[in-house]
Amino acid sequence: MRLRYTLPALADLASILDYIADRSPRGAARIHTRIRAVTDLLVRYPLAGARTDDPTIRRITTTPYPYLLFYEATDAEIIIHAVRHGARNPSDKVRSE
């Protein structure tokens, strides 16, 4: 199974990590490590996340950090569509390539 980030998801991740790194470089590294661990989990267990209103999109948290990964699981790959802080408005559109 392959892992792929969409361009908007990569921009989300970069923005989050840059913001945190300005305040705590070690904190940003810890969060990035946790996000990688969660994506590794998804590669092994694609249906680990919760369903969303969109039947093709699932979400999973990066506990203990308040970030959500919105992803799609296909037969061949996991596609990360967005990385969001849990306090963000859930009505923001998630899917875009």
Explain this structure to me?
With 97 residues, the chain is α+β, with helices and mostly antiparallel strands. The protein has one domain (2-85): RelE-like (YaeB-like fold, 2-Layer Sandwich). Helix content is 38%, strand content 30%. It is built from two helices and five strands, in the order E-H-H-E-E-E-E. The chain has helices spanning 7-23, 25-44; strands spanning 2-5, 50-51, 58-62, 65-73, 77-85. A five-stranded mixed β-sheet has the order 1-5-4-3-2. It is globular. It starts with a strand and ends in a 12-residue tail after the last strand. The mean pLDDT is 92.
Summarize the topology.
Layout: E1 2-5, H1 7-23, H2 25-44, E2 50-51, E3 58-62, E4 65-73, E5 77-85
Parallel strand pairs: 1-5
Antiparallel strand pairs: 2-3, 3-4, 4-5
Helix pairs in contact: 1-2
- Based on the structure given, which CATH architecture is correct? 2-Layer Sandwich
Number of helices: 2
Distance between the termini: 20 Å
Order of strands, main sheet, comes to 1-5-4-3-2
The number of domains is 1
Run of helices and strands: EHHEEEE
Short description:
By secondary structure, the chain is an alpha+beta fold. It has helices at residues 7-23, 25-44, and strands spanning 2-5, 50-51, 58-62, 65-73, 77-85. The chain is globular and about 40 Å long.
Task: List descriptors.
97 residues; alpha+beta; YaeB-like fold; five-stranded mixed β-sheet; 5 strands; globular
